[in-house]
Amino acid sequence: MIMGLVLEKESIQSSQDLQHETLPKWWKRDCSMLVNSFMVIQEIFPELSRMAQYFLPKMPRKIRASQNLRSISISRHTDFYNFSKGILLPWVSFDSKDARNVLLYDIDHKEAWNLIKKLPACIRPHIVMDPHKGTALGIISLRTPVLLNGHTKPVELAEACHQMMAKYLNATPLPHGSVVKNPFGMMDNVIGYLPRIGEPHTPAIWFQHDQRKCWHTIPGAQDVELKDILNHLKADYGEVCSKGTRRQFVKRGDPSTLGRNCAVFDLVRWYAYDHYETDYAALLDEAETVNQTFSDPLPHKELASIAKSISRFMQNRYNGKKDSGRHINRGIMKLEASQLDIKKKQKLSAHRTNDIKREKTEALIFQALESWNPELKLNQKNLSKISGIQLRTIQKKWNEPEVKATRSGHN
């Protein structure tokens, strides 16, 4: 399958078989070179044909590659080659100029394979080894290439996932555009010769290695989603994310441990803040997803109550960040066009800011009360922990009529 198309050898009649909307524009115009290259790999190394089906279509028509980058030869250099020639050279770059197609890792220790086997199958990197020296390259093929000149969030997420996986594998992350070991590289295309001095470091692999190939390849996940890497390695996300996201982590801390509904409440409201999600059904779906992580899930009725509370708050009172960026209210009162002096403008603006803060505080208190765990004692200290509001603020509002009336429903 190339980008969703089945490419069995006998089924390919012409380049027209690859005219598919998911192919990049440079292959849509003429994909004969892509088809021919795939056919060559399928003919010579049939065990790598499935890898080729996912790697090749994302690559540009001219690729940076080398015949002598790490060989023993007079000179070493890289150059740009036509796709059909470059794809069979020993070293190649899988990225295009403006997109990151892969995440790359330089691995030089023996424990890597044990670490990889513990990963879910959907995020395991391909391992491309020097069969004699034992040094290896890890390649994660991204299902969706990350555009470097596009939105910053996917770029930041890709870099965070790159760093998290490198930390897990105890490997060195390689930058975008790196020229690395090519699993489809052929020994006939090496200029000079590869260093094969002394006894092999990995004799079991060396003696089963196909000598026509430069490297020994252990296939991993064919196409990987960044979100799957993030979900599995999320414990390290706070260490590798951007400074802005890290500040958000510090401010939020960990979800409440006072009860399952408190934890669901925290995780779902944070999801709503990050995605500016106001829809009740979407929030209920997220609550159900979180709920599935518990060994003893909450009943649907409690999830519905939590989602409804958060949806109401997001629709009526939330003034934080939107999914498209920072939500700026500067100038919303249009005081710059009025004839008031500067001190009065500042006073009115300060009153409005104070009103917003008060409304947000009250909303968090009411959300916490509406989703209160009946097994948890309702007191000021617990309410402060669950709502995230300082204890002295809770003490001030404890006996206000609306808060008192809401509390009475839980007594």
From TrEMBL:
Residues 257-312 form the Primase C-terminal domain. This is Primase C-terminal 1 domain-containing protein. It comes from the Bacteria. Pfam families: PriCT_1, Replicase. Gene3D superfamilies: 1.10.340.50. It comes from Acetobacter aceti.
